[in-house]
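Reading is simple: the C-alpha cell line describes the chain's fold. The lines below illustrate.

. . .
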Amino acid sequence: MTRRLVLILPVLVVLATAAPAGAHGILKRASPRPGTSVDAPPKTVTLVFNEPVDRVYSSATVADASGRSISGRAVVSADGLTMSVPLKAEAGIFTVRWRVLSQLDGHTTNGRFRFAVRAARPPGQVQTPSADVQAPAEDLTVAGAGIDFPRALIRWIGIAAVLLAAGTAFFTWLVIGPLDPEAPAAVSRHQIEHALRPIAVGSALIMALAAIWEFLIQAAALLDLPFSRLLASGLLGGLLLDTKAGWSTLARMILAVAFLVPASPRGRVFRMSFVIWFAVVAIVFALLSNPGVVTGSRHFEHFVALLLVATVYGLITAVGALILPMVPDLKLPEGAWAPPVAGIIVVGALTVSSHAAGRGPVAAVVDWVHLVAAAAWIGGLVPLAVILLRTSGSDRSDLARRIVPRFSQIAGWSLGVLVVTGTFGAWLHIPALRAFVETLYGRTLLIKLLLVLPVVALGAINQFVLRPRIARGADGHTRRGFIRNLSGEVVLAAGILLAVAILTITPPASVSLPAAAEPSVRLSGFAGGLRVTLTVSPGQPGVNQFAVEVDPSLSVESVEVVLMELGASREPSTIRLAFQATNRYAAETEVFDRTGMWKLDVVLRRRDYSTTVVTFPLLGGTGAARETDSRALRLLEQTRSALSAIRSWKTVEQITDGAGNVVVTVFEAAQPDRLRYRTSTDVEGVVIGSRRYQRQSGGAWEQDRLTTPLVVRGPFAPYLEQVEAAAMGRTDRCGRENCQVVLWDAPGRAASFAGWIGLRTLRVHRLLMVAPAHFMTAELQGVILSKSITAP
C-alpha cells in the first residue's frame, strides 16, 4: 500500500499546484466598453479577464469596418489579468477579437466585440456571459454560447477511452486478481485476463490518438492556424511543454504504453519500471512548475541531468527486461499493481486540464477522486459485460457467481463517492439554481443528472435483486436480465460521458451565468415643478452610464451633468448627454472615478434660453473611512454656535430614495418650538410645541399631540450635533460669500454629509446627505419669515 501511495504522489503534487480561480478565461470588462461610442479615438484597447491568461499564447487584434487590422501586438500584464492592444483609430466602427489561454485550467476561450469612435451606437442591450460586461447583442460574441460539436465528440471519445482503460485495469486488479488461479473453474483467471487484453489495448490506443487529435484541434483554435500549418509554426512543442493542455496530452500519450505492454515476464519488468519512472519524472516536473522550464536556458543543467538519468535508467530497464526472465529459478513479481496505478495517474491527467484545476487543490483532488470512482464503476461495466457475453451456459453461471458480487460491491462504493464528489462539483460550478436554465453548462449538467437516475436505478436492481440470485446460482433468465441491465447501463453511461465532454469544454456557470440586472442609482427631483430623473449605472466609481429623463412638458435643447468631487479641489467635469429617445438623454464616461461624496448637477438648457439646474448627492463606494481633521471639527462647532443665534428661517429639502421616488418639503421654523411644512405630495403641517396640526390636499385640519415636544435649535442643527470623521473639502462660492465644504459622517457611518459653510456668516447654505434609501439636497432659503407661525 505504501508503494502504491508513493506512485500516486505525482498526481497529488500536480493537482496541488492549482491556484483558486474561476476556470476559463472570460472577458470581465473592456475599455472602450463593448458596444459603446466614444468621442476621442483611444490609443489602446484594454481587456481585463477574470483569471490570468498565458502571456505567450494569448492575443487580440482590432480591425476597422473593412477588416483591415489597425492594431499592434497585444501585451499581457505581469499578473496575466490585463491585455493592452495599441491601435491607430479614427472615426468609425471597430471590431476587437481576442483569443486567450487560461494559465489555470489550460482552456482556450475567444470572443469579439465592437465599439464606435464618433459614430452612432447600435441600440439594444444584452447581458453577456461575463459578469461585468454589457454590450449590444449584434456587437458581442463570446465563446461558450454554443456547443463545439467536433471538439465535444473527440473529447467524448478521449474521456471514454481513459475511463475504459483505467476501469479495465481496476477491474482486472480488484475483481479478477483476487480469484484463485489454482481453483477449479470452467473459466480460469488467466483466460479472463486474456479476454480483457483487447479492451486494454484498444482503449489505450484510442486514448493516445484522441489526446493527440484533441490537442491539435485546440492548438489550431488557439493559434488561429489551419492544420496544414501547425507543424510549420514551430509552436506545438511549446504548447505541449508549457501548458496544462499539453501536460494532459503528454501524460495520456505516454501512459498508454503501460496498458499496451503485454503481461509476459519481460513485459512485466518493463511495465513496472516504466510506471515508476513516469511517477518520478512527474514529481520533478511538478516541483519545477511545468515541464517547459526543464528545457529552458535557466534549467539546462536540470535537463542534462534528467537526460542522463533517463538514459541510464532506460538501459538498466532494457537489460533487466531481457536478462531477468532468463535466470533459472528467479520468480519475477507479478506487478499487477502497475496498470491500475497507471490508470489512477492517467485519470489525474484529465483533472490537470479540468475546470476544477482552476479552483484550487481541494477542488482538483475531489475531481480526481470523482473520475477514479467513475472509472471503477462505469469503466468496469464494459469488461464485465464482455466477459459474461463471451461465455455461455454453465460457464457463464459459474463465472457470474464468482465475479458479479465483487464488482457490485465496488460499484456500490463508487456510487457513494460519485454522489458526494459530484455534489461538491455542482456546488462549486453552479452559483444559483437559475444557472440550470440560463447557462449551457447548467443545462448540460441537468441532462447529465437526469441520465444518472436510470443508471442508478438499473444498478440498484442489479445490486439488490439480481446479484443475490446470481450468488445463489440463478437460472438463465436471471443472468440474461442482469446482462440486459448491464447493457443498458453501458448505453446510458455513454450518454453521461457525452454530457461530461460538453461540460469540460464549456465555461462553468460560475463565470458564464448572466449577472442579475446591473444595479443603478435612480435619483429624481423637480425643475419648476416638473420631474427630472437621473439614473447612474452602476453608481460606483469607474465606467458609468448617466441617463436623464425629463418631463415631456419641458422643452429641452440640451442636457448636461456636472460632477463635482467634494473632497478634492480639481475642476468639475461636464458630461454632455446625447439624445437617445423621447425625453431621454444619455452618455457613458469614467469621470466618476473616486470614492467619497460627489455633487451632481443636472443642467437643462431650454429652448427659451433659460437654464434649470437640479442637484443630487452621490456617494462613491461605501464612504471611505477618513481621519478627523481638527480644523473641520472646529469650524463645525463655530457653525453650530452661529446657527443657534438665528431665530427664524426657511429651508427646502429634496429627498429621493435612489429608486426614482422623490419628496420635496418646504420648512419654515422659528425658535423655540414652531415649525410649518409643506410637501410635494400636498401634505401641510404646523407644529407648536407638542401640538401638531396636519391636512392632506387642502382638506380639513386634524390635530394630535406629539409624545416629545418640538425643540427648534437653528437650521440644520440636528445634522451637526453628532459628528464623526469630519474633514475639510473643497471651497466653493455661495451667493455673495465664499464657502468651505466640510465632510462628515453620522455616528456609525449611518449617513454621510457635505455642508457648504459660509466663511463670513458661518451659515450652512447647502447640505447634502446620503444614507440608505435617502439622497437629500437641502438649501437655506432665508433667515427672516414673512409672517409668524400660528395655529390654523
Q: What stands out?
A: Residues 1-23, 122-145 have pLDDT under 50 and may be disordered.
